[in-house]
Amino acid sequence: MKISVIGTGYVGLVTGSIFAHLGHDVICMDIDEEKVKKLKSGDPVIYEPGLEDLLKEGIEKDKLHFTTDIKEAVEKSDFIFICVGTPPKKSWETDLSYVKKVAEDIGKHINGYKIVVTKSTVPVGTGNMVKEIIRSYNKNNHPFDIVSNPEFLREGSAVEDTLHPDRIVVGSDNKEAAQKVADLYRGIDAPVLIVKLYSSELIKYASNSFLATKISFINSIADICERTGADVEEVAKGMGMDKRIGYHFLKAGLGYGGSCFPKDVDSILYTSMQLNEPFIILEATRKVNENRPVRFVERMEKMMGELRDKKIAIWGLAFKPNTDDMREAVSIKIIKLLKEKGSNVIAYDPVAMNNAKNVYLKDVDIEYVNSPMEAVKDVDALVLVTEWDEFKRIDMKEVIELMKGKFLFDGRNLYNPEEMEKIGFSYVSIGR
Ligand code: UDX
To answer: pLDDT of 248-262, one tens digit each?
Structure first.
């Protein structure tokens, strides 16, 4: 099939590469000329395991093409996947301006029957908005259908998640069009759920906000564990053994970050406010998450006393392991809080340091170093923010030797408390 993917962010690029891998003819379109140039040469631009190989395979087999020309992308394809960003506005509303622009361009260049698929996470009702925009520009009344096909991939395992999803959700008011989109995934072994357009749009938000709620829930349990002497890891295990609850997303820590959970929670809260149906549970989910870094730094202060002029090493800046993405990363909040209190911060991350330096912590005075061991030299405390595998493998006896102080604040429960105490650390973790 001939497929165009508009927008080459995480979702678009992975989707396009996988469709090419499945044998379709794919054109990926992006307005960013630099990016398109790099993609054409096989450079995936973002760090995502497995993506570079898929990209090269698609290019070599002549199945994957890149362009900055939306007209070409629209005219040459039967399916058009909208994968552009849907960032949050300050008011928590979702900014749909990129989606609207793409819809306008599709309407201008449509030259025959097309199936237009929204893959970007969009608030319920957006599919119909896209339909109206295309219709208003579609001078020759070419036929088209609108389908919603949300993406559930996680960063850091995006390729794996797309090749082995738990489900493929396709929503449309035209079941035939939905089936055609579902057929594009032939070769991927996953149950397909075909639903109404609105349901499909909502499934994505309902899933992400439910997972975010699970995280805030276990983090609140962790707070009770800290007060009582229970161990949140044991509690989560005991909860997870109940099939109705499950083990996943019960990892207590510094809270959720990233490009999806925070913005999706805000977006559905906005929708619920607009509908005058307050989503009280989700308001609490958000509040609990906002407070995680604050609570953590307060604990540091309690243990270490004044943080002014203390030298503090940060291990991990990315919002989670296996990605260089720093959007809504907890590290940003922790570091800013520490800086407000007058601490000196030395940071190390295997892949996210450039993003930190150049974008997300651009104006913050941080010393960046090239190895975890370099980071801990003469520091008063070490804070583990992102649980990269690399940190798990380090000999912590060597670490304590290099440090001046003995404080180890483990924001992700990566280490074993007894072992760390035996080594000599004043060890603080979450909910145990
Ligand atoms: C998420 C959804 O999982 C995915 O389905 C959707 O398409 C996009 O949003 P992603 O943001 O890539 O994916 O990361 P995910 O692995 O879900 O983690 C999100 C955040 O939650 C991270 O900050 C992570 O550290 C945190 N988290 C996750 C926890 O604190 N505890 C957990 O148990 C799980």
So the answer is: 999 999 999 999 999
What are the C-alpha distances in Å from 43 to residues 70, 75, 106, 274? 21, 26, 28, 42
Which atom from ligand 1 is nearest to the alpha carbon of 11? 7
Run of H or E including 312 = strand 311-315
Atom number in ligand 1 closest to CA 207: 5
For ligand 1, residues with CB inside 6 Å are: 151-155, 208, 211, 215, 249-251, 253, 255-258, 260-261, 319-320
Of 28, 83, 225, 260, which one is the catalytic site residue?
Answer: 260
**Contact predicate 216/154, CB 8 Å:** no
Q: What are phi and psi of 295, to 5 degrees?
A: -60, -40
Dihedral angle sign, alpha carbons of residues 183, 185, 189, 193: negative
Residues 324 and 386: their CA atoms lie apart, in Å, by 11
Q: Is 260 assigned a catalytic role?
A: yes
Per residue in 131-189, pLDDT (tens digit) is 999 999 999 999 999 999 999 999 889 999 999 999 999 999 999 999 999 999 999 99
CA nearest ligand 1 atom 32, residue? 249
CA atoms within 13 A on the CB side of 389: 3
**Which backbone phi and psi does 422 adopt, to 5 degrees?**
-60, -40
Tokens representing 305 are 């006393």
Strand partners, 117: 81, 147
The pair of structure tokens assigned to 35 is 């990016």
Residue 40, Cβ neighbours under 10 Å: how many?
Answer: 15
The closest alpha carbon to 367, from 345, 340, 341, belongs to: 345
Measure the CA–CA gap between 331 and 318, rounded to whole angstroms: 7
Which own/partner contact pairs does 357-365 have at CB distance under 8 Å and 24+ positions apart? 359/326, 360/326, 360/327, 360/329, 360/332, 361/317, 361/332, 361/335, 364/335, 364/336, 364/339, 365/339
Residue among 250, 409, 262 at smallest CA distance from 326: 262
Report yes or no: 366 and 385 within 8 Å, Cβ to Cβ. Answer: no
Q: How far apart are CA 256 and CA 79, in angstroms?
A: 34
The reported pTM is: 0.95
Tokens, residue 191 = 């149950």
For residue 144, the SS3 value is strand
Q: What interhelical angle do 126-137 and 97-109 show, nearest 10?
A: 40
DSSP 8-class letter at 205: H
Q: What's the CA-to-centroid distance between 255 and ligand 1, angstroms?
A: 10
The SS3 of residue 122 is coil
